What does this fold into?
Amino acid sequence: MWRGAKTLTALAALLLTLGLAACGGDDESEPATTAASQGQSSDGPADAQNGGGKDQDGSGAGDDSGGGSEGSGEPAGEFKPKRHQDSGGGSEQFRVKGGDNSVQEFGQEADEAEFEAAAGALHNFLDARADGHWAAACSYLSDQIAASLEKLAAQAKEVEATGCAAILGKLTNPAAKGALRQEAKQANVGSLRVEGDRSFVIYRGPDGAILAMPMTQEDGAWKVASLAGTPLN
It folds into this structure.
């Protein structure tokens, strides 16, 4: 549970990862846990594509307004996964000599099917968020993250939206759109480290950044368990 300053700090962290304006609150908040089908996935490693991703020409990205119904958080047009090629190669390439390699050594390297499923969930989340498809973006988030976002935002008087999709649509700063699109476009997954129902997707982002995104498995589908990847370099 978080109270007072801890709640404010937690909310600020959530908002900053989305390029949001700062808000605050002081009631206690408890995380919860998720489910939803991951039926839309992108391709796995470049040498093991399964055709799961859809053609970019039918991405339904929408215009620069990120358009959508303000109340529902639904964007104009249906979200369609884009095709991505991931280099794969495993976590060894991301090891830092003399550094903290706890993520790179977490659990074990996933098999090809799990790699593709988790990479697809990450790509679809990043693409949907970058293009303003809030409901779709939320469908790839874990229940814990979605519920935490809703509860923390509910404590901020400045935020009137309710529901994950509406909150993302209301709070995402238009100035962050370019950065979000760059990350979505350049994300290149190299590794999936798995232990039970938890995992880390390790991927390359803009400007050579190596990022680790925590994932959790719910109802047999990998879900994104954070709003931003953690830098490893």
Residues 4-27+38-58+80-231 form one domain.
